[in-house]
Each structure stands twice: as structure tokens, then as C-alpha cells.
Amino acid sequence: MTTASNNSKRQCLVMGNWKMHGTLADNAKLLAALRPYASKNAAMAVCVPFPYLAQAQDALKGSSVTWGAQDISVHSHGAYTGEVSGAMLKDFGCRWTLVGHSERRSMHAESDQLVADKARAALAVGLTPVVCVGESLAERDAGQAVAVIQRQLAPVLALGADSVNQLVVAYEPVWAIGTGRTATPEQAQEVHAAIRAALSAIGAGNIQILYGGSVKAANAASLFSMPDIDGALVGGAALIADEFLSIAACGDQA
Ligand code: 13P
């Protein structure tokens, strides 16, 4: 297996995924604390629940912190009750959308192909999709981690180099999400290098690959020191302003 690769590191990206958390009042405090963040080496972004996109736009516009959604419809418009289109996300100034988060893959039966189709829908309206991949504990224990990720990525890679060069990949081992059990930097790097090798094979080896799964200020620096880890997708710790700002500070120093 590939163990290391690209020489020049990409810009670090520290992205919060609020999941289904927040209230208008709590968000106002969190966004106000993030707003002054001045991006140096690390860019900061937050992916908020749909109803709070307007609030994020109001609170962050003119700052260096960007915002996005946690999902996108594969359809551009139409009779799709409960869905939210890419054009709607653009109306609220979104720069990003997550696609294929493990919670959507497992709880909403999203297939690898659907995730790729959502990435394509995002690109079609000028959003940057953050394609999430990751293996379960059983898959890791069976030695299948890299094979699972290659399977998840296959329909995304089939979008072609032009598309893939415009997206971000997030490696989030399911067993590390919300468990407090982070992959070691070496475990994460091993998978990131394999992802980069797959990306390189189609001519997209220099896109950002984020790590996600119990990232906090205490472990961010060691993760970011790995050659193929270009930032973090942060759940719980992104809801605590000081913690999230400290993770970004680690990225600035990476
Ligand atoms: P935690 O950081 O809470 O483990 O969540 C990770 C995640 O799922 C981010 O998308």
C-alpha cells in the first residue's frame, strides 16, 4: 500500500459539520465568535442545518469564514418534497455541501452512485462538494478499509478528472465518528495516501483530503502533520467556539 505521497502540502481546510444541532440563539454566539477568524494557512468553513443558512450568511458575509450545507438534492427542481436543491443553496451564499456523510449513507440508504450524483449536482451549480467516505469497524477489522473506500469513490472518480479536481474528499472512519476514538495519525495517513493514489491515477492527486472523526484541539496538530491530511471535518468540537478556533490554529501552523 502507498504510505506517503505528495510533496507540496495543500491549503489546510478546517470545516465544521454542525449536524442537527443549534438554535438561533446558540448559533448567533458561535458564529459571532468565529467571524473574526483571519485565515492564514488554514481556511475555516461551517456546514449548518438548512434552516440556519440565512443566519450563517448574515453572520459571516464579509468575513473569511465560508459556509455550506450538509446535503444536496440530486435534482435541480421539481416535486421532491423535503429536498433542497443546489440552486437554493447558492441563493444563501453557500460555497460547500457535504455529500455522502456516513450518517446519510447508513440512515438514509444513500448508495455510492447517489453520492456521486449529488457531487455532480453540486458541481453543476458551482458548489464544492465534500465527498465523505469511510469504513465501519467491522470492515476495518476484516482488513477491508481501503477496499471499501475505493468502492465508495469509484463512481465519484468516474465523473472524470475535470470534476474531481473541483471537489474535496473527507475520510471519516465510521468507528471514529462521535466516539472519542480518533484514528491515529498513522492509521489516517495510510488511508489518505491510498485515497490520493486513487485520485492521482485519474489526474486529480492534488485535491484536499480532510480527516474526520473525533478531531479536537488536542489531536489536530498531529493529524495535520501527516503529508496527505489537508485539514479536518469536525463534528462535536465544531460546536464549541474555542475548541474549533484552536483546531483552525493548528491548521495555521501545519
Ligand atoms: P465528530 O467530530 O463529532 O466525531 O464527528 C465527525 C463527523 O462526522 C464530521 O462530519
TrEMBL record:
Its EC number is 5.3.1.1. It comes from the Bacteria. Pathway: Carbohydrate metabolism; erythritol degradation; Carbohydrate biosynthesis; gluconeogenesis; Carbohydrate degradation; glycolysis; D-glyceraldehyde 3-phosphate from glycerone phosphate: step 1/1. It catalyses: D-glyceraldehyde 3-phosphate = dihydroxyacetone phosphate. Keywords: Cytoplasm, Gluconeogenesis, Glycolysis, Isomerase. GO terms for biological process: gluconeogenesis; glyceraldehyde-3-phosphate biosynthetic process; glycerol catabolic process; glycolytic process. One of its GO terms (cellular component) is cytosol. The active site is at H101 (electrophile), E172 (proton acceptor). The keyword Ribosomal protein does not apply. Substrate binds at N17, W18, K19, G178, S214, G235, G236. The keyword RNA-binding does not apply. Gene3D superfamilies: Aldolase class I. One of its GO terms (molecular function) is triose-phosphate isomerase activity. Its main location: cytoplasm. It is found in: Cytoplasm. Involved in the gluconeogenesis. Catalyzes stereospecifically the conversion of dihydroxyacetone phosphate (DHAP) to D-glyceraldehyde-3-phosphate (G3P). Belongs to the triosephosphate isomerase family. Homodimer. This is Triosephosphate isomerase. It comes from Sheuella amnicola. The gene is tpiA.
